[in-house]
Each structure stands twice: as structure tokens, then as C-alpha cells.
Amino acid sequence: MDTTAPDQALCRLDDIPEGGAIAVDAVLRDGEENLIVLRRLDGVRAYMNICPHAGRRLDWAPGKFLIKDNLLVCAAHGASFNDDDGLCVGGPCRGEHLRAVPLRLDGEHVYLAQGDGLTA
Q1: Helix or strand or coil: residue 107?
Q2: In terms of Cα–Cα distance, which of 25, 27, 6, 5 is closest to 106?
Q3: What predicted TM-score, i.e. pTM, was given to this entire model?
Q4: Out of 19-33, 65-79, 90-104, which region has the weakest mean confidence (pLDDT)?
Q5: What CATH number has the domain spanning 8-112?
Q6: Cα separation, 38 vs 33, whole angstroms
């Protein structure tokens, strides 16, 4: 008997503007968390919506993110993160990373992939 939980559906690919990001809630090992899901021509990426500097959310309004020149900017203190690897390249937490969350695309749907302690 297969006891593997199915991957958790997060959103449709069309829900994420090209070059932009949305916030979605997901159930992880430690409970429900808010995620940033970014879309670029080369794919989709997700990170925990927690700035490593002060533990605050990065969005300036619920689900609204500032992205400029492929940098995701924290609304609280202006830390700037590469959108492709989550590395902080400017601001108070330079050198730290956003926590990446594994995704899986299936056609037009984006799923939270199993693994790395994540559960559906």
C-alpha cells in the first residue's frame, strides 16, 4: 500500500504574473506557512515568506511584493534578494538566504513537492 501523501496544490501557473510573485499558504512540517511563489521565463521558485534579518514577511501588503531587476525587496528593512537563489545581496542580512521550498509543475498547476521535511 502506498502511504505517500500527494503533493499539495498551491496555485495555477497563470495566477502568478510573469516576472512577479504571489503569496500562498501551505502546510509544512511545522504547520501552516506563507510562501512567496515567483515566476520567470525559466520557471517558478518558492521561498518561505520570512526575511532572515528580522523574521518578518517580505510583502509590503498581503500578497504584494516589490521585485525590481530580478531582486525581491523586503518591505520592512529593504533587504534585497536574488529571485533565482534567495541570496541577500543588499541590506541588513547580506550573505544570508531565504529558505527555498521545493516545487513541482504539472501542466498549468504548481505543487509543493514532497521532501525536505515538508508534508501535505
Answers
A1: coil
A2: 6
A3: 0.87
A4: 19-33
A5: 2.102.10.10
A6: 16
| Grid cell in block for residue 58 | 517580505
Q: Which residue in 45, 79, 49 sits closest to 61, CA to CA?
A: 49
DSSP state of 118: B
Sheet containing strand 66-68, edge to edge, reads 66-68, 71-73, 80-82, 88-90
pLDDT at residue 112 tops 60:
yes
State yes or no: pLDDT of 100 exceeds 90. yes
Q: Are 70 and 41 in contact (CB under 8 A)?
A: no
* pLDDT exceeds cutoff 90 at 4: no
Residue reference for cell 525590481? 68
Can you tell me the mean pLDDT for 2-28? 84
> What's the N-to-C CA distance of the chain in angstroms?
18
C-alpha cell at 93: 542580512
Residue 88: predicted pLDDT: 98
